[in-house]
Write a structure and sequence with these properties.
Blueprint: H1 6-22, H2 28-35, H3 40-52, E1 56-58, E2 66-68, H4 70-80, E3 93-99, E4 114-121, E5 131-135, E6 151-156, E7 165-170, E8 173-181, E9 185-189, E10 198-201, E11 210-218
Parallel strand pairs: 3-5
Antiparallel strand pairs: 1-2, 3-4, 5-6, 6-11, 7-8, 7-11, 8-9, 9-10
Length: 221
């Protein structure tokens, strides 16, 4: 994740606030008025920077086509300790517990597992209080953009669709992998061409082994 300047953060916050409050992004003129920028070219400079750094996607050059990259916005909030707009209140934020080592035999959110908490805009995380966080250890998902030391947000659920990135409890450790149910086994596929998949026989697989689906990621610089 690339860091943002103060003006880029202000632009990002204004776009997010508009989407949360109205359901759609602001126009170039509205962004300019909010930021005190008279030229639409000046507004586009900020939007291009946010797009280049991975925080926005645009179908074309019109601001109505702006789409927030939710995991990157969450990363920005965590890394920069930004606060939500004044019109937000505590109900707009959700506390996500960050887990350390998750061991078999312990409840998922047992006190022994929780090592930290972060507060995230509720609009950025589907699942609300059913979401927990994990710190990634290892390089098994590097080709999916999930790096060693990253924090992932996981929505607790006992099922997943084929190809989802999930967190599963295999043995005594939690692992993040792609989920592929096959005829006779469950294949947990790493996103690293140098690593082999983990295979669990269907008869040995239990729903309690699937801790949840990965729904977001943030990275501290």
């Amino acid at each position: 994740m690339q860091g943002l300047t103060k003006r880029q953060l202000q632009t990002l916050d204004f776009i997010r606030h508009s989407i949360n409050q109205r359901g759609y992004p602001p126009t170039l003129r509205e962004i300019g008025e909010h930021m005190g920028i008279r030229s639409t070219n000046g507004v586009n400079d900020h939007l291009r920077a946010l797009e280049r750094k991975g925080y926005l996607r645009r179908e074309d050059m019109k601001s109505r086509a702006l789409k927030l990259v939710e995991s990157m916005v969450a990363a920005s909030d965590a890394a920069n300790n930004t606060t939500p707009p004044e019109s937000f209140d505590a109900d707009d934020m959700v506390e996500v517990q960050i887990l350390g080592r998750v061991a078999a035999g312990l409840p998922l959110l047992a006190e022994e597992n929780v090592v930290d908490t972060v507060h995230v805009d509720r609009g950025l995380l589907r699942g609300g209080r059913d979401v927990f966080g994990l710190r990634v250890a290892g390089d098994s998902m590097v080709e999916a953009g999930i790096l060693n030391g990253d924090y992932i947000f996981v929505r607790k659920q006992p099922t997943a669709d084929r190809g989802d990135v999930v967190v599963a409890l295999i043995g005594d450790e939690a692992t993040v992998k792609y989920y592929f149910p096959e005829r006779d086994y469950i294949r947990f596929q790493p996103a690293n061409s140098r690593m082999a998949p983990i295979l669990v026989r269907s008869m040995d697989f239990k729903s309690t082994m699937l801790l949840g689906k990965v729904v977001g990621i943030y990275r501290r610089l």
